[in-house]
Records
---
Amino acid sequence: MSERSYPERPESVYFFGTCLIDLFYPGAGMAGIELLQREGLNVIFPQAQSCCGQPAYNSGYRDEARAVARNQVRHFPKPYPVIVPSGSCASMLRNRYPGLFEGDPDEGAAVGFSKRVYELTEFLVHVLKVELTDLGPPMKVTWHGSCSMQREMGLREEPRQLLAQLGNVDLRPLERERECCGFGGTFSIKLPEISAAMAGDKAGDVERSGAEVLVSGDCGCLMNIAGTLEARGRRVAPRHIAEFLWERTHDKG
Amino acid sequence: MTKADFRAGAARAVGDVQLRSNFRRAMDGLMEKRAAQFADGEELERLRTLGESIRSRSLARLPELLVQLENNCRENGIQVHWAETAEDGNRIVLDILKRRNAKTLVKGKSMVSEEMELNHFLEAQGIETLESDLGEYIIQLAQEMPSHIVMPVIHRNTAQIAELMERKIAGVSYTENPDELCRIARKVLREKFYKADAGISGVNFAVAETGTLCLVENEGNGRMSTTAPKTHIAVMGIEKVVEHLQDVPPLLSLLTRSATGQPITTYFNMISSPRRPGEQDGPQEVHLVLLDNGRSRILADPELRPTLRCIRCGACMNHCPVYTRVGGHAYQAVIPGPIGEILTPQLRGLDVRGDMPFGSTLCNACVEVCPVRIPIVDILLRLRAEANSPEQGGSVKGAGAKREGKEAMAWKGWQAMHASGAVYNGLSRLLAKTGNMMPGSVGPLKAWTATRTKPRFAARTLHQMTRKRGIPDE
Ligand code: SF4
């Protein structure tokens, strides 16, 4: 959490893309990799990676979650930091793996792995101390910090610090910005009425912010809020923070 | 009675516009008041650390502390009774009332008596019980359950209360003036206090070293219920004991500031004995009923034990985005909201209320405010695992009761797809090619697409993109 101590800038890092990004937002994953490469890092993407296991874990299916988690633990063996473009998956890998593997032959490896996990904006700010130059046009933007990013990873300021470096971006405040958007993984399917009510309220707050773009660090929330906005015929573009930062700061020419 | 089910209750509540706006407004106010009390974040964290350690320490020594409490209460002249189950507790109360030939009864607010369904039990025995807390009195008039553990009638606005009082109390005409409404209730209650044969109250903290029962309240009805009638019966869950008198002030401060945003409540009662010779007032008899009702089982499991640290401040529900949307009744349980989601299934069994731990987005808003730092999300996750456990006979009653063949199979399929890099690569590519052809109107997607557009699979996965770009694999 906030008291975490950070290592020196490494030469190589692993990238854990997350299954949502892999299937629905691969551009966000590519952008995350490019942000890291631009800082001179050697980025490794193990092709055997799949999912952190959170969907089954949060649903109470721990054996199934562990089987999937084991696949990740085994394919990130070297002592490099593991960078994750999602607060939610980062928290699963970092905070839940040790308990999930308690008493398991892979416990040592899982604990070692979990200690090397960093959420992307956390790593950009605290380890790489990136400096960004905004090349994009003026734009009104609002930020949705996911619950896991804020409350499980303790990352509230990091994404804002990055967005604040973009001179042409007008970061609009979001009412009730700390309140959950109602995604909650399988919650959105199991308790759809409450989830829809929460997403609807959040979408309304996003609209009222006057932003043209909704930026978040978690694709689950983006899918939920943007899907609701879109179903209502509203035009607010969803962007993962990695993609947003990369789009605005790399020289396209 | 049909089986209690949170989803059904919530679906009904979410469509009730009036209810939703009542809750949103009330919860916003409570959150603001609490925040104003804890402007100094460092002081708050120090106090939470202290509160957590007091409660953990008490629970670690619970069996000895209860014996100490019993001995000291007896020495003070308080009669102590042990109740294993809610039924035992009800019978103990009834026996006391019968011995005193008591027919009418006033009650201060007590969540444990709700857990025992004491009113219901006593009424069936021909004993008239009257709730004396204003909120409890109103819901008794309406024949409802409390919708909040601190503010039982928070689901109703003033107009709805005015209408109810006009309808239910003889000779009362409609008024929305809150002072006037209070005056009407006070008049009814005052009379009952003097006539009642016995008073019943809950207990917020019981001090083992002195044998003192502490009662926190705002209306003076707690003091009246415990002093005006000849017999006072206090009912408490066994977890409410603390070691020392000095443990009380920090917990009291955390309780009132977290609950209602008050630096302290209007009344704080410390009951240490019945009327002594030469004293002018106070009950002739004081009884303490200690209720277990499943608490020992919770205590025995180190991962679940923190549930019992709860001081019933209600902050977790005030800050819960789910509770705020649906209100307390949707839970169909005595204790709603996040604490209810972890406590109720443990007390009543996962076979009865295994649905409750799933009624959360796991957003951690409750964990962030809980004054005794109960890891509510960790316990929710544990209970979900226990509810779906392939083995029966875990430490929570009804373990494995929620497991369904179809869902278990779906997760096995999910595991097969994600536990091997080769299988995952093959299937994810297939999804990228064909996933968008899946109709959005069937299966699990149907719930999603009722209010949202269908998620669109990208043409190529990140795995494919990184391979094409030559990003190293190891
Ligand atoms: S769980 Fe914590 S926040 Fe909720 S009522 Fe109990 S003490 Fe208060």
---
Amino acid sequence: MKKSVFFAAMTAAGFAAGAAAAGTLDDVKARGTLNCGVTTGLVGFAAPDANGEWQGFDVAVCRAVAAAVLSDPTAVEFVPTTGKTRFTALASGEIDMLARNTTWTFTRDVDLKFEFTGINYYDGQGFMIPKALGVSSAKELDGATVCIQTGTTTELNLADFFRKNNMDYDPVPIETNAEAQQQYLAGACDVYTTDRSGLAATRASFETPSDHAILPETISKEPLGPLVRHGDNEWGDVVRWTLNALVAAEELGITSANIEELAKGTNRPEVNRMLGTEGTLGEMLGLDADWAKRAIMAGGNYGEIFAKNIGESTPIGLDRGLNAQWTDGGLLYAPPFR
Amino acid sequence: MAMLTEPPAESFRLSMLINDTRYRSYTFQFIALMLLIVFMAYLGMNLVRNLAEQGQDISFRFLGEPAGYDINQTLIHYTNQSTHMRASIVGVLNTLLVAVLGCITATVLGVVAGVLRLSPNWLVRKLMAGYVEAFRNVPVLIWILIIFSIMTAAMPSPRAFRGAGSEASMLFDAVAFTNRGVYLPRPIWEAGSLVVGLTFVASVIGALAYRRYATKLLYDTGRLLPMGWPSLLILVVPTVAIFFILGRPIGLEYPELGGFNFNGGIQIRGSLIALWLALAVYTGAFIAENVRAGIQAVSGGQTEAAASLGLRPRRIMSLIVLPQALRIVIPPVISQYLNLTKNSSLAIAVGYMDVTGTLGGITLNQTGRAIETVLMLMLFYLIISLAISAVMNIYNNAMKLEER
Ligand SMILES: N[C@@H](CCC(=O)N[C@@H](CS)C(=O)NCC(=O)O)C(=O)O
């Protein structure tokens, strides 16, 4: 008797565990908050400000998704992850999505069973070095001590780069960007290597950024984007199309300033479809008609988010480069909303 | 055996499993065991099913694939084209290196501090008490980080050694303390160095033989030969003589500043030093307490008896008290060695590439094989711990009081 109860409880628990794997969208709605994995702190991309509010380019993606799904851009629980812990956090369900300067690679997509829902920053790996060392090219780095974040693609690219160029180096493995910064500034390593955007962001937080140079070589392609667990396509669609909405909004000239106006209806069908005055796109996603409007209102369109967090007017000062709209010669190209 | 004392008439009934105290404990143990097995099986099945649901399996094939990353301290040949298996072995050797260095240093520190804690000198006693309390009561991770920060922040970087009148200079032109570690001269073995080595080994044997002879002479005839300086002579003189006769076959390669770093010589990395020292001073504090307890457990009468025979205090300690204390000290010290070895897995905090850093760190992360790598890690630490216990138990048995 007792035994059968025990077994029944066990099977029930088993089914419950199985069921939890799907339906992230419903989970998020029921929970009322979005668990979003971000960095442990990289100013401009994701870092808490003086008031403890998370700010940044990656953070904005989380907020847009939360606004679309929960109608509240602040309903986000930010979970800081390191290069090492991020994938475990996502795979185990601790976070619903990961927006952490994460490079879209074959193995992460296919073997680690994740689904990249787009690219929010086209990047490449670079090297930062104190100007005092008088190095002007990465080809002159033979014998250097290099700080490198473990568990990243940059760790593998670094090994490839030095092997290809027949040079030696001494890797100093490091867990977080903050540690890397500390070691680099103390001179425990000569060079710090990671995504160029990360280097720019790190350098901007130095006392004298002008003492440090980012070498001209870009040694890899690092398409960075948000990702979710493989197999939950509904949830993947929500994150993918939220990001697409931000990108398309810039292309279509929808900004946080004019969106209220445009949402009353325009004579441009695609704008109307996106903002929900025409068609049922929101419903198809399992959301309401205003989902994209809320996502854009959370922090503005892609261009606004870029300019506010990492653009040329910020200390980080990144130019749009590859991350310009395709109409401006960049790579940003959102599929049509229809 | 219990069965034999039973009256034979009574036959076994099923209810006895519950009502009879002779069987009841077995019944409950059996039920508990079954529940445990069912529970473990459930966990295992749950794991496999959840993995299957995510489209993953358990496979160790990744071990044969190229690792793709570099490791900064390799005791065996390794390149980023070597396999994950080899990367794991590199990590294992690094773990063992820091564990062995740590255990030896901790033992020396612990024995010295433990003995001195009982010193009649007030200052020495209090100093040692201070050491023990300070290091025992702060988590070892903090000590690792403190020592590492001191190394990286306070030591000059190799750059500072450049040029005439540079900010930093090498010790005797041979040793450089930098924030990346300590660079030492490396011996170069040329032809003839083997003869020097063999001479030294022979001298060691000779010195040991002399000490034996002297002890035997003392026991047999009561004649006391000097021990210290003759052994030293036997050790040093022939080796040095051969070294010069053969024209100095052992040279030294000095570290030299070139490019970004010192080249040549031996580099002891800052991460190794930080980890090693922190583990040693931390564990040493515990060993000191074990040693003190061991010494205090030897009855005071022994010391008094020895003193009344005219032995000097230092002799009393080394001939009477310590050998007896050793028996009490060894078992807790085994646990300390095990702790030290397991604590060495904090290495990643300073970027020391031990097995947790290679197999359990980069390999895990780049392949995503969390369960496999963690299982392997557990197995490794289990084997190491059991091996340490086994070796120390053999030693313990050898030191045990022989009962006649
Ligand atoms: N894109 C690479 C590297 C990502 C990465 O770790 N970036 C660093 C610097 S750009 C970072 O975000 N660090 C923040 C932290 O330490 O939490 C990857 O996906 O593996």
